[in-house]
Amino acid sequence: MPNVRWLLALISSLHRFVYRASGGRIGGRAGRLHFLLLEHTGRKSGRRYEAPLLYMPDGERLVVVASNAGDARDPAWWKNLQAQPETYARVGTRRLAVRARGAEGPERAALWGRLLEGWPEYARYERRTARPIPVVVLETAGATGAVPVGADR
Predict the structure, then answer these.
(1) Are 38 and 50 in contact (CB under 8 A)?
(2) Helix, strand, or coil here: 90?
(3) Left if phi > 0, otherwise alpha if psi is -120 to 50, otherwise beta: which for 43?
């Protein structure tokens, strides 16, 4: 597979900009797909980042996939969240306090099946890599007792 990281970085930057500027009205949905902006802090740099990601609502939780488009490496945002799981997710104009964790065992299997229904491309990513693709659960205020904060940052 050709290295298209530069193209993915450009698309992500544009997506982030449009999403933030429109409060998620543009870039928040594409058909049945939902997008959020996930904040994370660099585990080495300490810099704040935002990653636009597909997500699946699951009650009061949000579920994302650390597929990295089937790359052999986990995405940086997942490595960063493993080091510092408390963060924020922007869904539309709401900025929610979340705690990230990897789903395991039967929970992961059940979520993975639902994720494949929403975005069958994940199956291709799974075939492309030898690593298990992490399913990441973002527990929101209702699920963790955390307090949602305002949309301003």
Answers:
(1) yes
(2) strand
(3) alpha
Are the beta carbons of 77 and 51 closer than 8 angstroms? yes
CA dist 7 and 13 (Å) reads: 10
User: Which residues, given as ranges, of the chain have pLDDT below 70?
Assistant: 1-4, 142-153
Q: What is the set of domains in the chain, with CATH numbers?
A: 5-144 (2.30.110.10)
Q: If you ran DSSP here, which 8-state letter would residue 134 be given?
A: P
Dihedral class, residue 59 (left if φ above 0, else alpha if ψ from -120 to 50, else beta):
left
Cβ-Cβ contacts under 8 Å for 20 (sequence gap 6 or more)? 37, 90
| Percentage of residues in the chain having pLDDT higher than 90 | 67
Classify residue 73 as left (phi > 0), alpha (psi -120 to 50) or beta. beta
Q: CA-to-CA distance for 82 and 24, rounded, in angstroms?
A: 26
3-state secondary structure of 93: coil
Report d(CA 133, CA 125) in Å as an integer: 8
Six token digits for residue 119? 């975005």
pLDDT at 144: 53
